[in-house]
Amino acid sequence: MRSLWSALEPLLDQVQRPARYIGGEEGARPAAHAPEKVAWLLCYPDSYEVGLPNQGLQILYEILNERPDAVAERAYAPWGDLEVLMRQEDLPLFSVDNHLGAGEFDVLAFNLSSELVYTNVLNLIDLAGVAVRAADRSGDDLLVGAGGHCAFNPEPLADFVDFFVLGDGEEVVGEITEVIAARRSEGRHAVLEALAGVEGVYVPAAYEVTYSGLSAGVTRRWPGVPETVEKRTISSLGDWPYPKRQLVPLTEVVHDRLNVEVFRGCTRGCRFCQAGMITRPVRERPAEQVRTMISEGLRRTGYDEVALTSLSTADFSGIDELVADTVGPADDDAGGAGCPAVTVSLPSLRVDAFTVGLAAELQRARRTGLTFAPEAGSWRLRQVINKLISTDDLDAAVEGAFSQGWRRVKLYFLVGLPTETDEDVLGIATLARRCVELGRRHVRGASVTVSVGGFVPKPQTPFQWFGQNTVAELQRKVALLADDLRGDRGVRLKWHDPEATLVEGLASRGDRRLGVVIEDVWRSGGTFQEWSEHFDYGLWLAAMERQGLSVEDYAYRHRRDTETLPWDHLSAGLHKDFLWQDWQDALAESGLEDCRWTPCYDCGACTGYGIEHVVASAVPPAGGSQGTGQNLLQPEPVPVQLLDRRPLAGVS
Amino acid sequence: MRVRIRWSKQGKIRFCGHRDAARIWERAVRRAELPMAYSQGFTPRPRISFGLALATGQESVAEYLDVDLRATPEELYDWAACMPERLSAVLPDGMAVTDACPLRPGAASLQEAVTSCAWEFALAESDVTSAADWTERVRSADSLPLQRERKGRITTSDVRTAVGDLHILDASAGSVLVAELGTKPRAVRPAEFLRLIAPPLAAGRVRRLHQWIMRDGARYEPLAPEAGVLAPAGDSLAAASIDAVPAAQQEVCA
Questions:
Q1: Over residues B193-211, mean pLDDT
Q2: Which residue of B has its CA nearest to A18?
Q3: How far is it, in rounded angstroms, from Cα A576 to Cα A560?
Q4: Nearest CB to A252: which of B23, B43, B70?
Q5: Residue A206 and residue A142 in contact, taking contact as beta carbons nearer than 8 Å
Q6: Is B140 helix (H, G, I), strand (E, B) or coil?
Q7: Residues of A near B (CB-CB distance < 8 A)?
Q8: For the purposes of burial, counting CB atoms within 10 Å of the CB of A456, is it exposed (0-12), middle (13-18) or buried (19 or more)?
Q9: Contacts of A340 in chain B (CB under 8 A)
Q10: Strands B116-122 and B174-182: what pairing?
């Protein structure tokens, strides 16, 4: 094992923000390397500032380093200035822990949280010193793996990645480690063949894809591999109190605070939301474990802010008490040392579960930004997308925030949703103005930031058949909105680049043929495409044309129910006929209730895997319509299964 | 009540900038459970006053900062005595507290008080002869004009009086040039020093060795009694017994 530090150090005097390459974070403790261990290089395919806080990567880093048969280090995409120097000096991708070259590892594993990082993945495989195409790698070359949300349609990366992992990684990383350790003496093919037999692992080389027109046919090339690869799901979050030692960076990163995941999965059933579909069922972390992770985490890290993360944190059973306890006693001499109150941030808030009481607790410490996501400007369209929050819900939430001293709230919307009309788009402006009006009753200078994203239909959701709006159409809708809001001093409008939305859409529902486009863009220098200053729409259009693929076919056309979708052999547990029915219900403007608080409608995520929701309370949190469209201000218990509490895994 | 701390920053952590170091310090004082005083207002912060900034990539064995504690003057000595061990334990590798002393109320801030810094510049073996020549030329120059840019305006000033003692030393890790550079009215930075005479001197790693307070012809370090540091324990102020030390601190100090 040779550290590359001495070769790297002189380069760091010449680059921007060198601290992102030095490692040394509090909590960074890779295990010792040994020949018999399987060595993982966990890589986030974007800059350190974006990648370091990623909780998935940190969880696997700890779990692997706790195992006697594994060691894990971390790598991030070097920024362009350092990459140029590394290529000049012939330095490979390196770990930030011990500054080892990628070649010292057995597995290079990527976290895929956005399609726009795909060209970075290719660049990093190349920097790691192995062939970019999986078929060109052999012998002891790194095994390239990938997981994360994009793995639910990994086909655009199928030619470059040896194996994908679908679903929760906590258990399966151990099984993969064991397979590699046991089979590596038999060669690369034997390892991959064995990996293809691990539940939740997809080895693309084991499947042949043929295309006829727009439809794809998938056949198994290797004997014994499953016809459909099913995702992995951990049945209880309480068994996995990770990260136990969250990394504390030495330089500024995004989300620079303690993060505690309070539950995984969401059954609100928003039809546009891939995360909500692929992570079912709901698994709450036991409240006492959450409290321990917060108190231990704050003490260990020195942070004064904690984010309670999930897909909809206000839905956590007992959220009011949890926030009140975390902020600390009302006395501002909390702790006796004059420490100010702990700031709690709730990154994703359902407006129908956000109460004045919660706002009052949050504001006792520093007020962080409040973002609500009504997603659509009219009740009709919210029924289409199944975001069943009423105007009353939104009024109550916004009023709650302004009455507790917030001066600005952020509202998040999508445009380009199925069945959307100009009236729906203009409804966003009406809603924003209404919020400003409500705010001015409480604070002078109340304002609202409206953030508009273009909708990208995602695989494994009811909208997977929907033809995405064209770039021109999205631009027209944004202009319509901007025009309507011109002169409104209380409303600030921000929007996502429709061209980037299109590229995301191409990759989101792409098939294996898109691989050459990604490779083409990468070879033309298109990396860091998530960054607006680096995003290059022209490169993508040119590559599509060179490869003879049509934007219309990949993004804009509506899919038919008879069509085999590129990800049909990969399953998030959801029955395809459930998704189709939900799509038809959407078109009929019919909502579907949250199954956490109502009887099961058999989407497949629980029944197929023999698992259930794990919730501490069968009663929806106070107030609002809670996705039912009904007034639940006096909530009644509804029938859900409460799992027996097992003894908790400890937090050390 | 205020305590002045001397600390070092060496090795990989030299690539953390001044702002990064400030954030590291904020978390460190919380983790060390010091009875910090907090700023008032919308976003209370522990009250830490940093001295002269150190540029990203430079090392130092002579960084200073002042922290405000909520403690009586009697308790202050015990807290200060405890700090090197307690803070070093929670600071990242390469950062350590080497001394800490209570400060007299009203003592001048570091920014006001420090008048010069001694710097060490690592020289490549092949450059030692030309460095000696370069050093001699700086030493014998009558004037040392320095062109600097600030807010888009280029100004030239003679920094002859700001360049003090210069000498080349053979250190264990090779030859080094040691230079004392003034900070008033405006600090001569190491990078500026290296280009005072063309061609610029090529130097590797830069390390701050000392910060000095020059007063009445004598030179003091910021932890000297003359800089406002209270007399060491043993006098009447420090008569407080160990019983006065908060319980959490006794564990560490024991």
A1: 94
A2: B15
A3: 13
A4: B23
A5: no
A6: helix
A7: 5, 12-13, 17-19, 21-26, 248, 250-252, 256, 299-304, 337-340, 366
A8: buried
A9: 38, 44
A10: antiparallel
Query: What DSSP string runs through B24-74?
Result: HHHHHHHHTT--B-B--SSS--B-EEE-S---TT-EEEEEEEEEEBS--HH
Parallel, antiparallel or unpaired: strands A447-454 and A408-415:
parallel
Tokens of B244: 């006065």
User: Which residues on A lie below 8 Å from B190 (Cβ)?
Assistant: none
* Cβ atoms A414, A450 nearer than 8 A: no
Cβ-in-10-Å burial (0-12, 13-18, 19+) of A55 comes to middle
Structure tokens at A462: 């009811």
8 Å CB contact of B70 and A338: yes
Q: Which amino acid type is present at position A400?
A: G
**Token pair 């919307």 is at which residue?**
A413
- Per DSSP, what are the bridge partners of residue A75? A43
pLDDT in tens, A311-330: 999 889 889 899 999 987 75
C-alpha A170/C-alpha A172 separation (Å) is 6
Q: Sort A123 into a burial class: Cβ within 10 Å, 0-12 / 13-18 / 19+.
A: buried
Q: Show the beta-strand stretches assigned E in A221-375.
A: 229-230, 258-261, 263-264, 283-284, 305-309, 343-345, 371-375
Structural contact between residues B227 and B220, judged by C-beta atoms closer than 8 angstroms = yes
The pLDDT of residue A601 is above 90? no
Give B179's strand partners.
B119, B166
Q: Among B12, B27, B36, select the one facing A338 at the smallest CB separation.
A: B36
Structure tokens at A66: 């706790």
Distances (CA, A) of A585 to A436, A462, A579, A592: 33, 9, 10, 8
Q: Determine the average pLDDT of the residues in B28-36.
A: 95
Position B242 confidence tier, pLDDT thresholds 50, 70, 90: very low
Give, as one character, the DSSP assignment of residue A560.
P
Across A66-73, average pLDDT = 98
> Phi, psi (5° rounding) for residue A429?
-65, -40
C-beta atoms of B12 and A24 within 8 A: yes
| Cβ count within 10 A of residue A299 | 12
Look at residues A127, A131, A129, A124 and name the one whose alpha carbon lies nearest to residue A146.
A124
Q: Within 13 A of A201's CA, how many CA atoms are on the CB side?
A: 28
Contacts of residue A367, defined as CB under 8 A and 6 or more positions apart, other chains included, come to A405, A406
- B93-139 pLDDT per residue, tens: 999 999 999 999 999 999 999 999 999 999 988 888 889 999 999 99
B204 burial class (0-12, 13-18, 19+ CB within 10 angstroms)?
middle
Return the closest-CA partner of residue A436 out of A400, A408, A406, A394: A408
Chain A interface includes B94 (CB < 8 A): yes
The label of the residue with tokens 């530090």 reads: A5
Strands B2-9 and B95-103: antiparallel
Judge whether B228 and B107 are in contact, CB under 8 Å.
yes
Residue A104: closest CA among A86, A130, A133, A138: A130
Instruction: Provide the 10 A C-beta neighbour count for residue A528.
Output: 23
- Cβ contact, residue pair B12, A303, below 8 Å: no
Task: Determine how β-strand B116-122 pairs with β-strand B206-215.
Answer: antiparallel
For the entire predicted model, the pTM comes to 0.93
**Residue A37 and residue A31: Cα distance in Å, rounded?**
10
Element (H, E) at A71: strand A70-76
Strands of the A491-495 sheet, one edge to the other: A371-375, A408-415, A447-454, A491-495
Residues in chain B with CB shorter than 8 Å from the CB of A19 are 15-17, 20, 56
